[in-house]
């Protein structure tokens, strides 16, 4: 269950990052509210997951999901460059997060 909370925390982190990018274009209270909600939920879920998961592993997986997800969302939603080196780096980030889970 804690791994599901950690994945949820990473997804909320992605949502918060996406709202940061959106806030640059759309300075609305709604966007700001979603930004705060995304990051708030992310921190809460991360702290719950860390009840049983090692801090280093949980933090690395959380930031990996957020970083890889943020880069992917940037490419899909905000016109950031889509090239092989970026995609390979995203793959490496995700592979490292999976490796940490498998390593225990």
Low-pLDDT segments, ≥5 res: none
The helicity comes to: over 70%
Instruction: Provide the structure class.
Output: mainly alpha
From the N-terminal CA to the C-terminal CA, the straight-line distance is 15 Å
As a whole number of angstroms, the C-alpha radius of gyration is: 14 Å
Structural shape? flat
Strand content: under 5%
H and E string: HHHH
Number of strands: 0
Provide the residue-averaged pLDDT: 93
Task: Report the major sheet.
Answer: none
Number of discrete helical segments? 4
State the domain count: 1
Describe the protein in words.
With 104 residues, the chain is an all-alpha fold. The protein has one domain (2-103). The chain has four helices and no strands. The chain has helices at 2-25, 29-49, 55-77, 84-103. Helix 1 runs antiparallel to helix 2 (29-49), helix 1 (2-25) runs parallel beside helix 3 (55-77) and helix 3 runs antiparallel to helix 4. The radius of gyration is 14 Å and the shape is flat.
């Amino acid at each position: 269950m804690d791994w599901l909370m950690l994945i949820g925390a990473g997804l909320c982190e992605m949502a918060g990052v996406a709202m940061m990018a959106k806030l640059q274009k759309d300075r609305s209270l709604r966007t700001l509210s979603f930004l705060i909600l995304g990051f708030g939920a992310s921190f809460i879920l991360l702290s719950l997951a860390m009840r049983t998961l090692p801090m280093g592993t949980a933090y690395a997986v959380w930031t990996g999901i957020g970083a890889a997800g943020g880069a992917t969302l940037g490419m899909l939603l905000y016109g950031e460059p889509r090239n092989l080196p970026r995609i390979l780096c995203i793959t490496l980030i995700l592979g490292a997060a999976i490796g940490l889970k498998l390593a225990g």
